[in-house]
Task: structure prediction
Amino acid sequence: AIQLTQSPSSLSASVGDRVTITCRASQDIGSDLGWYQQRPGKAPSLLIYSTYTLQNGVPSRFSGGGSGTDFTLTISSLRPEDSATYYCLQDRSYPYTFGQGTNLEIK
Amino acid sequence: QVQLVESGGGVVQPGGSLRLSCAASGFTFSIYAMHWVRQAPGKGLEWLAVMSYDGRQTYYADSVKGRFTISRDNSKNSLFLQMNRMRVEETAVYYCARDRAHGGIGEIDYWGQGTLITVSS
Result:
């Protein structure tokens, strides 16, 4: 199975900061990667699919990049409501796999 | 709007069986693949299984292959997960989720709110 490794596992940043979360795949997955946000006690929600494409209704401060084995999720200007855990998911091959998650705390 | 409502959670003994259901509404269920994902308390997300829109293709995580079975009833807009020989470490919230691509299998877009299963004697 393809392994996804996210970094950092946790981070703390202030409102207005720019933050980047990285997801590294154990093998080439092309652009078959998505990002999800999960707030405490809630179901995950899709932010970005196919590496770059913003899901409808997601604020433009979220962006995705990368290809092959290295991918990023960037939040350009943090807002308090961005406090959550973020996961990457590869849909290149079965079984699908998630990264271990990145817990983002807003100072 | 897309709605996915899981049911069937509860307490099951180790080695026991349980069947989860997911009622879908707000979209044409019969043209979308559907997934199951779980999350142990305080842990990350684990993808479990997917079934194509027509039921002809199914794929499973290695951890559940041979014990869990995904199925669907397009006439009732429902998805199911039959879970056998359950283990204590499978205590988790189980999510039903829709695939983004209609007619194929791709990313997960919409999620239900989840149902908690506790495996304990």
Observations:
- The radius of gyration of chain B is 13 Å.
